[in-house]
Q: What sequence folds into this?
């Protein structure tokens, strides 16, 4: 039986998810921001601003601006808004619209000012079961639009639910794999952006691949330490859901976070650099939130600390990198 | 007291090592291939063909074509020839020229037709102690020429010798770190080239970053499995000597091995593709040697096996990748 799936969010990634679930034959109710956008989608079978190269099959998609319409009767509710909008999104929602549904979270970034990962924040705030599922990459939405072969990982405690969700994804270019570590996966998806910023800073300060390979491998170990501390459980960081995701972002020349690092590394003030970025740069906020989380378990994480000092405490990128030259192993 | 160091090899990497050790104030006797090359170096203070951008300080460097001249009285003998030339190089050498010296190996690749890693082959053939030191990256020689900050790892069983060698490296842009796993480091340096070939094949078959991140993380796990099998000992693959080196090659767009993969992925015959490459492509030979080594411990290494079949058993790259789409996790 086809399922009813609600997707909350209207960016590139939400659009990619709507595409995947609708073309798999599920009914998708899609909660978008405004009526103009909803009308455009119905008329043009595309999202006007994000991932507009992807054609959508409106037979299976119902865009709406009314949260209750989107959520009532949905078996699955997918949160796919940018982390910066999680709070305002959740404020519009009511617990009773989602009591029967399984929550799925596909958001990269801490919820600003809370020190919480999105799944935790959403389920806590809406008083829902915290047995949520995380849907994650490594995936660039643009490649989904092009039907490039992509692995999607579903993470959660309840394997039977993961299997049920897996059955609702039948796009031929998508392979789903299952994992039991929703919290760890959310953390890695956040922390990788800080590594990308560190690499961008090193780029602008003329470090070569030799050093960046060392910087990245050290940073990867820092990520492991942090995740094992905040969410202790057995995990293999070489699984593609962790490592592939880290690789696709942290070592990619093209990520927004790396670009922010490059700007800051060139000596541009952080505030100015953020203004120059057209989209939200998650790593900037992640670095700040993480700093408060890391106050009590004092870990040896020099790369993460260095990025924090550069972005949030006016430290000089040149001297911070000189310091890292001596600290990294 | 300055040490006497012999460097065997006249490619880019050997030149980078001559530069590092000579500018650190050691006397370097440099065994090069022919008199013309030796004369050119003396006259022009550069290697004519490889890494010629690096200026060399001839006060400390003695180029020679006579093995005995180079090796007698050397405290350290560094082998830095391409793997393909290890056998012919060793044939010219005598055990008695090196009995007092510590052997250092800085070669990436199996010794063709032997299934042996270079350190093992050299010490076995010359009846030397097999307690050799491996000197490794992540390092591109070109970045050494530019004085880009670089970590060099010294691996071996005898820590006091590693510390002694470390003291002979004082270039301000080089940091040395120590490691106790010479054999594992040699293996990783070889296997990473096979991953680079796999990524090149995926490039030409139009796979995107989503899939290549999964391909690479799976391949990294295969490398771990193999190394843990052939050289069992405790090691952290996220150490920069393993992981940084893997990263700098396996995921770089610019490696020779990746280029070979791209050519083959485009449907060019392997023999033709090899001819098109101007330099030796280690991964091609590594794939073949590894296949015979892996006959007895049957490991689950689909990426490594796939590259073998494509390069050495006429398998079709397109179908091999389709198979991997289903096998990777």
A:
């Amino acid at each position: 039986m086809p399922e009813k799936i609600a997707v909350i969010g209207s960016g590139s990634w939400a659009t990619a998810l709507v595409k995947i679930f609708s073309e798999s034959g599920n009914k998708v109710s899609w909660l978008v921001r405004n009526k103009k956008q909803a009308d455009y989608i119905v008329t043009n079978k595309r999202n006007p601003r994000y991932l507009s190269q992807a054609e959508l099959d409106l037979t299976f998609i119902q865009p709406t601006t009314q949260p209750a319409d989107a959520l009532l009767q949905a078996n699955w509710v997918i949160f796919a808004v940018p982390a910066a909008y999680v709070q305002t999104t959740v404020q519009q929602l009511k617990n009773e619209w989602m009591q029967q549904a399984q929550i799925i979270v596909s958001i990269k970034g801490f919820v600003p000012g809370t020190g919480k990962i999105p799944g935790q924040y959403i389920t806590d705030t809406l008083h829902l079961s915290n047995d949520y599922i995380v849907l994650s990459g490594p995936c660039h939405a643009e490649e989904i639009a092009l039907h490039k072969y992509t692995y999607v990982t579903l993470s959660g405690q309840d394997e039977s639910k993961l299997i049920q969700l897996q059955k609702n994804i039948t796009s031929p270019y998508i392979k789903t794999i299952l994992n039991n570590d929703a919290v760890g996966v959310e953390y890695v998806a956040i922390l990788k952006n800080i590594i990308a910023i560190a690499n961008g800073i090193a780029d602008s300060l003329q470090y070569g691949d030799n050093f960046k390979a060392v910087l990245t491998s050290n940073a990867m170990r820092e990520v492991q330490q942090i995740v094992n501390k905040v969410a202790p459980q057995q995990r293999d960081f070489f699984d593609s859901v962790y490592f592939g995701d880290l690789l696709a972002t942290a070592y990619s020349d093209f990520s927004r976070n790396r670009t922010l690092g490059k700007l800051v590394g060139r000596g541009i003030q952080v505030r100015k650099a953020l203004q120059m970025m057209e989209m939200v740069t998650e790593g900037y906020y992640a670095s700040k939130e993480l700093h408060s989380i890391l106050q009590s378990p004092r870990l040896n994480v020099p790369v993460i600390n260095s990025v924090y000092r550069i972005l949030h405490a006016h430290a000089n990128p040149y001297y911070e990198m000189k310091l890292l030259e001596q600290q990294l192993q």
About this structure: Chain B touches chain A at residues 137-140, 143-144, 146, 148-151, 175, 177, 206-214, 216-218, 220-221, 224, 236-240, 243-245, 247-248, 251-252, 325-326, 328-329 (CB under 8 Å). Chain B has 15 helices and eight strands. The beta strands of chain B are 4-8, 27-31, 61-64, 76-79, 102-105, 133-136, 150-155, 174-179. Chain B has a mean pLDDT of 94.
